[in-house]
């Protein structure tokens, strides 16, 4: 097992390098970089914004209009020295290859620098947004598992019955409805839209949260999470439910179950004493990956609809603002976490079922 873990850890290096390299190349051809973003802000806000960005100094007048810089859209009329200063500020005064390897070297030392347009380090910015994403990712994973596992087991036991048929219909319909569409419906119905005003529309907690007692804080926290979690859980449990059912069906049909029944064991003893551990292998081992998926990718639209300032919304806005420092740093961190979680999932497989030996398999 030690050799397998070492191989997987070493394999993370070229995998991360490839992810960052492909993303960096794509970004080079994307229009509207951070320099263009600053130029657009200057064009929209006038000389005061230009003075603030240039540090309050610099001669932006005079013959600047005749000089210009035609490499950037909207740069006509700006002093080339000012454009050069912007390029130096964002690191675009260096060749792309040098910028890429400098970024990789810094990231290897977990030095992610500062945001281009926010006066804060990337790490502090991510930490600031994590409570919302952790809340959504953790609770949606726990709730979906709490629904999916009992439902999947029941469906396997009642396979082909009326209960199995109509619950399958509900699961399929729930999976087919987009989460953001259901979120909008919930917002209209219960968040002060056209009907009821029962739940808050924005934020993870109320503005007076710090003044509340601990029981009131807990209630306030779940009060704000009710609608977002309801919108996300509709489709989150479908895959796990069907996976649980199929896993139990596969195990129930095996010879050891027939033998256990022949020995006179009750169905409950057979199901939970013998079948459960084998059938739950895939589901339990997949818990870390399910949480990471919900944590990083499952809440972007929900965060936008309910104005929850989490990592999904941070990444989306960073792409729109061309804040490449945040974009690349979050991509690196999330990719690294995803690779580590994949390794942890494999180790959980061996912990649940010692018969699995990855050392005898190719990576």
TrEMBL record:
Give the transmembrane region(s).
9-30, 132-153, 165-191, 221-244, 281-306, 326-352
Membrane topology per the entry is: Multi-pass membrane protein
The places in or outside the cell where this protein is found are: Cell membrane
Q: Which coarse location class describes where this protein primarily resides?
A: membrane
Q: Which UniProt keywords apply?
A: Cell membrane, Membrane, Transmembrane, Transmembrane helix, Transport
ABC transmembrane type-1 domain residues are 130-345
What family does the database annotate? Belongs to the binding-protein-dependent transport system permease family.
Q: What is this protein called?
A: Microcin C ABC transporter permease YejB
Q: What is the lineage of its organism?
A: Bacteria, Pseudomonadati, Pseudomonadota, Alphaproteobacteria, Hyphomicrobiales
């Amino acid at each position: 097992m030690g050799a397998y873990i070492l191989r997987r850890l070493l394999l993370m290096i070229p995998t991360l390098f490839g992810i960052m390299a492909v993303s960096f190349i794509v970004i080079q051809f994307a229009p509207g970089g951070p320099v263009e973003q600053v130029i657009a802000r200057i064009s929209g806000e006038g000389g005061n914004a230009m003075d603030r960005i240039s540090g309050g100094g610099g001669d932006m007048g005079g013959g600047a209009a005749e000089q210009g810089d035609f490499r950037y859209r909207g740069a006509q009329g700006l002093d080339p020295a000012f454009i050069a200063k912007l390029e130096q500020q964002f690191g675009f005064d260096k060749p792309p290859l040098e910028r890429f390897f400098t970024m990789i070297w810094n990231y290897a030392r977990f030095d992610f620098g500062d945001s281009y347009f926010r006066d804060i380090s990337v790490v502090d910015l991510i930490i600031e947004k994590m409570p919302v994403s952790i809340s959504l990712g953790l609770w949606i994973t726990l709730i979906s598992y709490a629904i999916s596992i009992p439902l999947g087991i029941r469906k396997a036991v009642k396979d082909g019955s009326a209960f199995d048929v109509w619950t399958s219909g509900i699961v399929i319909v729930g999976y087919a409805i987009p989460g953001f569409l259901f979120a909008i419906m919930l917002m209209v119905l219960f968040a002060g839209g056209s009907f009821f005003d029962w739940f808050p529309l924005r934020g993870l907690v109320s503005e007076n949260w710090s003044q509340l007692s601990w029981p009131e804080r807990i209630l306030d926290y779940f009060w704000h999470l009710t609608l977002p979690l309801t919108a996300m859980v509709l489709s989150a449990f479908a895959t796990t439910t069907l996976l649980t059912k199929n896993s139990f069906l596969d195990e129930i049909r095996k010879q050891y179950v027939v033998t256990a029944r022949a020995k006179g064991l009750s169905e409950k003893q057979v199901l939970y004493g013998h079948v459960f551990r084998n059938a739950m292998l895939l589901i339990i081992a997949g818990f870390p990956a399910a949480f990471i998926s919900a944590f990083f990718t499952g809440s972007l639209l929900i965060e936008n609809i309910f104005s929850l300032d989490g990592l999904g919304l941070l990444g989306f806005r960073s792409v729109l603002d061309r804040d490449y420092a945040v974009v690349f740093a979050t991509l690196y961190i999330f990719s690294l976490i995803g690779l580590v979680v994949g390794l942890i999932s494999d180790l959980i497989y061996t912990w649940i079922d010692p018969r699995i030996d990855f050392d005898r398999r190719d990576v």
